[in-house]
Amino acid sequence: MSDIKKIKDDYIDKLNAENNVDKVNNIKSELFGKNGIISNEFKKLGSISVEERKKLASDLNNVKDELQNKISIKIQEIETKEINLKLEKEKIDVTLPERDIEIGKIHPVSQVIDEISSIFSEIGFSVEEGPDVENEYNNFTALNTPDNHPARDMHDTFYLDNNKELLLRTHTSPVQVRTMLKGKPPFKIIAPGRTYRSDSDQTHAPMFHQVEGLHIDKNINMGHLKGCLNYFIKEFFEVDKIKMRFRPSHFPFTEPSAEVDIGYEIKNGKIVIGEGDKWLEILGCGMVHPNVLKNVKVNPSKYQGYAFGIGIDRLGMLKYGINDLRAFFETDYRWLSHFGFDPLDVPSNYRGLSR
Amino acid sequence: MKFTVDWLKNHLDTKFNNNQIIDKLTNIGLEVESFESSTSELDTFIVAKIINAKTHPNADRLKLCDVDVGSDKTIEVVCGAPNAKNGLLTVYAPPGSIIPKNQMKLSVSKIRGVTSYGMLCSESELLLSNESDGIIELKNNKYANKIGEKYFKNTSEKVIDLSITPNRPDCLGVRGIARDLSAAGAGKLKINKKTNLKYRGNQNINVTIKKEKAQGCTIFGSCLIKNVTNKESPKWLKDKILSLGQKPISAIVDITNYVMFDLNRPLHAYDADKIDNEIIVRSSSKGESFEALDNKKYILENDMCVISDRSGILGLGGIIGGTRSGTEYSTKNILLESAYFLPRSIRKTSKQLNIDTDAKFRFERGIDPLSIEEGLIKASELIKQICGGEISNLDVKKIENYKKTIINFDPFLFEKTTGFNVENKELIKILEKLGFNVSKNKKILKLTIPSWRPDITQPIDIVEEIVRIKGYEHINTLEPIKTRLKPTLNYYQKLFHFLQRSVASKGYSETVTWSFTDSKINQLFKENDEEIPIVNPISSDLNVLRNSIFPNLLFYLKKNLDRGFKDISLFEIGPAFKGKNPGDQLTVIGAVRAGKVSRLSWNDKERIVDTFDVKKDVIQSLCEAGIDKEHIVIDDKTPSYYHPGKSGGVYQNKNEKVALAYFGEIHPNIIKKLDIKTEGLVIFEICLDYIKELKQKIKDTKSEYKFSDFQKSERDFAFIINKNFKSQELVNIIKSVDNKLIKSVRVFDVFEGENIPEGKKSIAVNVTIQSEEKTLNENDLDNVNKLIISSVESKSGAKIRS
Lengths: 355, 802
Fold this sequence. Notes:
Chain A contains 11 helices and 10 strands. Chain A is α+β, with helices and mostly antiparallel strands. The mean pLDDT of chain A is 90. In chain A, helix 1 packs parallel to helix 4, helix 2 (21-32) runs antiparallel to helix 4 (50-90) and helix 5 (108-122) crosses helix 10. Helices cover 40% and strands 21% of the residues of chain A. Helices cover 25% and strands 28% of the residues of chain B. Chain B is elongated. The mean pLDDT of chain B is 91. At the A-B interface, helix 5, strand 1, strand 2, strand 4 and helix 8 of A face helix 7, helix 10, helix 12, helix 13 and strand 30 of B.
């Protein structure tokens, strides 16, 4: 027994002093290999008496367990140490810059169009579109604005031919005409898009954006118009209270017609919507003129409804504090990065109109 | 339309104060543009304080003053006054001011080498007294709080400026505005005083309105006023004319203008002695000409309504008079005209000749045809008052009688349109105050429309009258009806929004540029499309509709490069025009990428952007939008603005004839022509209209989920192949060997040069082979390998590299 104990003690000491996995493994085979010390001790068991054998076998097993245990602990110990050492060496400066982030942006006009579409989608409007090039009839005549009508002077029109038959649409209202001509009432649409007028100064661009709205059914009256726009303005500006004023006006294609002002004030140089005692005109609207309905083969004694036209760029400027309309179309990379929106920031009802 | 409250009160008895009047005007649809004092030359003079007065470095007698003028910064003024000292309150005139004493306009000037911005004024310079020894000394107690304010109080009456919509000619006169206000409860319309004007003799200049098909005049009223003394207008009249923002000319002209703005009744005064015998109202013949009062000579077309005498044209009826018969201070006898011209004729003529006058503006919108006499009487009366003279009987020639407009109005239409109810009694009262004649026939109102309201032709016009006078605030705000008739967006609209955000998420910034562009740039990109010129472009470099998005995109790319940006990714989604008719347009995404990838990276090697960057962007965007990458086919036929060897077209599947997208480098010639300086420039475009709508919704396309757990094997092959042989085809050949077993083919190396024969290249591919039924053994795999090699060799002429 003392032999075994001595072997054990010797090897425990040896193992304790060892720092190399390979050498530990050598010790392991020295002890437990085919001709290993412990293996040989086991072999000796056959040649001794039964009683001694029992005792010795038990002792041997204990020593074996203890040594094997020690060996695996030792290996683990060394490996952990080695790994830690390796990790320590591999340490990098994580404050170094990441690979370039490729940031693209959505133009404010597109974002605002999506916001508008999302709001009107909630109350059942669908989106229609029309061509940028229009004929004189759809842009004017069908909209109760015949050639000799002074209201035409309010639209500085770009023409594509000398007969003034083909033009760039001056508003999105011709989409009303197209929609009603190709379908049957009821109609409930919005039509965002590019519009063109040949004036250009600080507050006018030769191209701008409008969204048209049209709701025609059997009993749609001015109360619905007011309700619809009130809802829209509140949702769009994301305010609880909105001061809104309907003011009589005139458009050839609606009657009665109105312009809508919203209340605002200037606080710390920034415009605050919904408060204050100043008024800002933001859209034109009215009940679709019976002449227009007749022109698009809708019976005005059966159907009636409202239409509105909103300047998209203007709304965007108000909501996002953009001062200069011309900058919208000048493709200044700095401006696009500043006022642009993250492509994942998709306006929606459930996720919220804007962040 | 401008007028003063005083003027309004000539026609309206009202207890309303100015602000109430302003609000009321707005509420009934007469939009107030502004309400302010007419500007005066004295407005520029402001109260200022000398903060610091020190001696001029180059002149002992001059002082250099820092002056507080009420803005953030002080202003430096050189001043010669001995009394200029620290803390003095005085009057400052900025550059641009006109000094009353000598009518000199101040400018920024250097005085003895020091720049002076404006000046400090003496009393004599402002014509306040003869005191010229020093600058004004203002009392501290009165002016200390007024620094920056105007020194002179503007005593002129405030002017209301209305923006009158084109349907309301009646409100282009003060009386019409007063009538509207009275209907809306803002006071009582004053009754016109009966005149006791005495007429003497007949209007003995014969007037004929020729009966012609295109005759633009239907009534011509006139009277002669003899022995007048034309002169400067009296102050009250001058003030009225000034408040309109116009210049007084002479009493006679001012009176005709005054009556026009007062009653909306344009008039014209001729020097009767300059009329050759008679007045003939007729249509012009092409080539006739006359000199108009704006000192321009007009050459007329056929069928313009002219007032003429035996010698020729005197003026364009209702638009502008001629110099030949114009009144002057020396004029003794005048013929006063009050006529009715047809709006259509006026509009046509003025458009053709490009003339805009106050009279034209009114006749074009429709003047009250029953106001002929009223106008003559009012003007004659004033002329007699101011210039003396004798007035002849009124002479009115007509070729058409005015017909009343009658509308039968069912009050229910009001409630049906506006959603609220107004008692019949109130409704009738409103209409009567607006000048309607109302009679009742059971439930229907029979309305006679006032002659000054040509805009009212049908029942809906009556609804508008009532609701605007009653007030839009009475309209209820109803909850929105949420019923949906069809989905918000159709397939292409969804595609638009999806691709827009998809491309942006690849690092491209969206821009919006004009739909028009410079024809010189456009022609580099228009291919076979027709050029679409704009007849009246805003400027010569925006003179055509864009056939492609790239002309503008590259124009602005260059601008940004010039701003110093190097790595730029831009895109626009919008129309590209293919013809000049409505609908000849495609919705296109155009994208550009310039510069380098990983510029100045501490860990990656920087490289110039290349074709495969944009190829990835375009393919990934298309895949994200739902297009199956497995079916996409690429070829190398691209528009001429692409680099012919480094660009490709993308097809939705092998059967498509039209590419839905292109990508690649831009043609070097174009970069040179546009003078774009960048290390690399690649572009792509997607035409949304060429994307075929997916037939099934995603919920219907999801097939049963299947996968194989059997072991997969990978094999590498390298082929020597003709240099022009397309890798896409090689991949297809390999896939077609066994579509079931070959799961993927990946090109992992391409090279030419060393050890590769001239005109050849080496392509290395990695092929993944996996069965869905069993684990393939060596034998199976060998068979597949052999098949791959033999297929590729026989179909492509390639040789396997060993």
